[in-house]
Design a protein that fits this description.
The structure is a single chain. This protein is of the alpha/beta class and 371 residues long. It is 41% helix and 12% strand. Helix 3 packs across helix 11, helix 4 crosses helix 5 and helix 6 packs antiparallel against helix 11. It starts with 20 loop residues before the first strand and ends in a 37-residue tail after the last helix. Bound molecules: coproporphyrin III and fe (ii) ion. The site of coproporphyrin III has 26 residues, from helix 1, helix 2, helix 5 and helix 10. Coproporphyrin III binds next to helix 1, helix 2, helix 5 and helix 10.
Length: 371
């Protein structure tokens, strides 16, 4: 583990709370053709996404019968969390709710309330800072408390962004090690192999506002770069690597984080590269952005460029990830001091609660932390 060099104050850590239930908070996805358009409307309401982009994305879902894999993955994650909690003798029920599709966060909060729970801790299926990956989850939690009319009665907090928690990082390390071994066994020399760490692009403005003191791409990009470095080191590899972006939406006139994964792949043969490993570092499960943008598009770009290519798995329900999420909850129950919190980069452990003004993004409004 890297020793943290930053001054970490007690403001990073909330006081301990005897939470009585967990809310697994996710993105949500359609489960049939009729859900596709209403789901996309939910996601993009007020966000200025051009119609052509929506049609394009609708086509990704239609291709798979209108069903996103994300909901089934969350059912499996919920079951895995319940099994892990039971194995450790921890009596915390898990409620699952989404930001953009049924079951909604409001349903989860209402159900928890009906079952007698008042002090809830949220676990988001999203690991990094930024408006889309952190603060928007908090905003939607606040909205869920409003919608249900339970704002004064139920408390719902959220665990810290866990990008550098060992539970999130370990599955990538294992996957990378295995993929590199396979490529080497197939005769691809390390000096002609490249590792591409892939994550969701976000608007430049949102990247900067994810934490402006961390370089040109803000805390969002800095966190990915730091985790990628750890994954390479833990996998024992000194192969060349780079951070690339995918799934850009928004109008072409608006700058988003670059380079795009497909552009990078296209340029690799000219650099003497013949094999790549794609590490989906920005994602928690193999959902649509991974299945379509990586397994369809990026692997096709690789085939067109004549490259051997492997896409390693996301954390999903890897035992280390599941155990790590439970540890993140216990950290809040116990009020674990910052120095004892696991963090594999010198950027973390990240804050329990968004600082005022952090991860605000372009279209967002600031919400006070729930307490
Ligand atoms: C950082 C980030 C994550 C990772 C963190 C996390 O996991 O939360 C993520 C995850 C996901 N994004 C998803 C789906 C979509 N994201 C969209 C749009 C957008 N994403 C953005 C960012 C992110 N997105 C942004 C800046 C936009 C532009 C509009 C806006 O500013 O809000 C759109 C609209 C169409 C389009 O423009 O692509 C869709 C359909 C799904 C579900 C997949 C499934 O169904 O399996 C998941 C897990
Ligand atoms: Fe997205």
């Amino acid at each position: 583990m890297i020793e943290t060099t930053k001054e970490l104050g007690p403001e990073h850590v909330e006081t301990p709370v005897a939470y009585d239930a967990i809310v697994l908070a996710s993105f949500g996805g359609p489960e049939g053709q009729d859900d596709v358009i209403p789901f996309l409307r939910n996601v993009t309401r007020g966000r200025g996404i051009p119609d052509e982009r929506l049609e394009e994305v609708a086509h990704h879902y239609r291709h798979y019968g209108g069903v996103s894999p994300i909901n089934q993955q969350n059912r499996e994650l919920k079951a895995a969390l319940e099994a892990e909690l039971a194995a450790r003798g921890i009596e915390l029920p898990v409620y699952w709710g989404n930001r953009n599709w049924d079951p909604y966060l409001a349903d989860a909060v209402q159900q928890a309330y009906d079952d007698g729970h008042r002090t809830l801790i949220g676990v988001a299926t999203s690991a990094y800072a930024s408006y889309s990956s952190c603060r928007q989850y908090t905003e939607d939690i606040v909205k869920a408390l409003d919608t249900t009319g339970l704002a004064g009665e139920v408390r719902l907090d959220k665990v810290r962004p866990y990008f550098d928690h060992p539970g999130f990082v370990t599955p990538f390390v294992e996957g990378l090690r295995a993929a590199l071994a396979e490529l080497a066994a197939a005769g691809h020399a390390p000096e002609r192999t490249r590792v591409l760490f892939a994550t969701h692009s976000i608007p430049m403005t949102a990247a900067v506002e994810s934490g402006p003191d961390f370089g040109p791409g803000g805390a969002y990009e800095a966190q990915h770069l730091a985790v990628a470095e750890v994954v390479m080191r833990e996998a024992g590899s000194d192969i060349d690597w780079e951070l690339v972006y995918q799934s850009r939406s928004g109008p072409p006139s608006q700058p988003w984080l670059e380079p795009d994964i497909n552009d990078v792949i296209e340029g690799l043969p000219a650099q003497g590269v013949e094999a790549i490993v794609i590490v989906p570092l920005g994602f928690v499960s193999d959902h649509m952005e991974v299945m379509w943008d990586l397994d369809n598009e990026a692997l096709e770009s690789a085939a067109e460029a004549g490259l051997a290519a492997k896409r390693i798995p996301t954390p999903g329900i890897h035992p280390a990830f599941v155990a790590g999420l439970v540890d993140l909850v216990l950290e809040r129950v116990n009020g674990t001091p910052v120095a004892e919190r696991p963090a594999l980069t010198n950027l973390g452990p990240w804050f329990d609660v968004c600082r005022p003004g952090c991860c605000v993004g372009v279209q967002a409004t600031v919400v006070e932390p729930v307490s």
